[in-house]
Write a structure and sequence with these properties.
By secondary structure, the protein is an alpha+beta fold. The chain is built from 16 helices and six strands. Its main location: membrane. GO terms for molecular function: ABC-type maltose transporter activity.
Length: 470
């Protein structure tokens, strides 16, 4: 009797998802690869579509991306059956990539370029010149070459022949710019790689303000001017964050202890009134303080004048402006610290105070030996998070002083009350900074590493690493 061996069946793939942190990371990796593949396919297909159909809308990349994802999801589910249990993470991964990962990648990339309002990759309208097109629609003749001695200099070509570079063509209304590839140049004539579409009546031409990678040039510029921007701004940022945390914590601690006293009549009314500065939006509160601290018409100086005190330049003097920032930030921040203190006091056992009273301890001794030591654990993370928040507290600086007043010997973008974040903002978006997005990105990277270093020191001081090891 002959026994035939049955064919070996393939081992079924597991539908049980991996467990633990390793399983989560593996699932995220599979989803990330699927998303990355869809983005790559969308980018390639949209580029191909733009070449074949120049009038195709830009949102086609999203159409291709979604279509590719719809194809990849069932294919991935067949190859890795357990991944369907993790598809709920996909929306979070998409939003994380779009609003966190992509901005970080772009910021790092721009930090090593010369990207700015001048070098933006867009047509340069400032040097637009009249142009005419030949009968075969392949040769563009320029009337002049503004700000340049030759056509290659005008177009800022990578080579003398300008082969592969780009020229921008406009019609009479200059409504829609058309980018055309250059084959070569001669005199004031530009030979195009392909004929211009018959629907375009060329009347003007200009160049592309292209940007490129410049290595560490932005960082060298920052450290070359460190004494006029980086170091004074960094020092004030640390002083501002540290002083704000200390002052607000002391004020909140004192008020919290006073208002927690159950024998205090009307304490709920006092709590409500003192909570109002935190309830009112900071934009409104800060604008109110700008009016109150006005040197000539503000009610603060008017009140000081009644007492025979000269008007104080609250927002017009570098030193007083710093004091004003701390005072206004105290107004905005002490209710939070007060509320945190009251909440933390509610967790302390009342029997401790009764036992201390029986032993003859005074109210101050109870605060010193019971309240403060027990509040330390609750307040440590609050103080550390408060320092991290105020280190990048752009709102109070921008709304109250806009970084000013001006201070002699400082960069126009880094004035007396500017912190690191407002310095970067001024560099990127203010006219004084020339909208230098690349330099602002370099500043953002420096802020990131400084914040990371400070956070590591804070975590070490708070014992976070020791807790994690346990």
């Amino acid at each position: 009797m002959t026994v035939t061996a049955s064919p070996r069946l393939p081992k079924p793939r597991s539908v049980t998802p991996p467990e633990g942190a390793g399983g989560v990371m593996l699932a995220v990796l599979v989803l990330a690869l699927m998303l990355g593949g869809a983005v790559l396919a969308g980018w390639l297909l949209s580029g191909l579509t733009a070449r074949l159909v120049p009038g195709a809308p830009p949102y086609m990349i999203l159409v291709y991306l979604v279509a590719t994802l719809l194809l990849l999801m069932p294919v991935t589910a067949r190859l890795v059956p357990w991944i369907t249990n993790w598809y709920y993470l996909f929306p979070a991964l998409v939003f994380l990539s779009a609003f966190t990962v992509l901005p970080i990648v772009l910021t790092v990339n721009y930090a090593f370029t010369n990207y700015s309002a001048v070098n933006s990759g867009n047509p340069d309208s400032g040097v637009r010149t009249a142009a005419s097109l030949s009968a075969d629609r392949r040769v563009v003749t320029l009337a002049e070459t503004p700000e340049a001695s030759s056509l290659s200099d005008y177009l800022r070509c990578k080579s003398a022949t300008c082969t592969g570079d780009t020229i921008v063509l406009f019609d009479e209304e200059a409504s829609v710019p058309v980018r055309a590839a250059v084959a070569n140049v001669s005199g004031r004539q530009v030979t195009l790689a392909a004929p211009v579409a018959g629907t375009l009546a060329v009347a003007n031409a200009t160049r592309i303000n292209r940007y490129g990678h410049v290595g560490l040039a932005n960082f060298r510029e920052i450290f070359a001017k460190a004494s006029r921007a980086l170091w004074p701004v960094f020092l004030w940022t640390v002083i501002f964050a540290f002083s704000t945390v200390v002052i607000n914590a002391l004020a909140g601690l004192v008020l919290g202890i006073l208002l927690y006293n159950k024998r205090l009549k009307g304490r709920n009314v006092y709590r409500t009134l003192l909570f109002l500065p935190w309830a009112i939006p900071a934009v409104i509160s800060v604008q109110m303080w700008v009016a109150l601290l006005n040197q000539q018409f503000g009610i603060v100086n008017k009140s000081l004048g009644l007492l025979g005190i000269a008007a104080v330049p609250w927002l017009n003097d570098p030193l007083w402006a710093k004091v004003s920032v701390l005072l206004v930030n105290l107004w905005l921040g002490f209710p939070y610290m007060m509320t945190a203190t009251i909440s933390a006091l509610a967790t302390i056992n009342e029997d401790l105070y009764e036992a201390a009273s029986i032993d003859g301890a005074s109210r101050w001794q109870q605060i010193q030996n019971i309240t403060l030591p027990l509040l330390r654990t609750s307040f440590t993370p609050i103080l550390l998070s408060g320092f991290a928040f105020n280190f990048n507290n752009f709102g109070i600086i921008y709304l109250l002083t806009k970084g000013g007043p001006a201070q002699e010997g400082r960069e126009a973008t880094a004035q007396s009350t500017d912190i690191l974040l407002s310095w970067g903002f001024n560099t990127a978006f203010a006219s004084s900074g020339g909208q230098n997005f690349a330099l602002a990105s370099a500043i953002a990277l420096i802020i990131f590493f400084l914040t990371l270093a400070i956070s590591l020191v804070n975590f070490r001081a708070a014992g976070v690493f020791e807790e994690a090891r346990k």
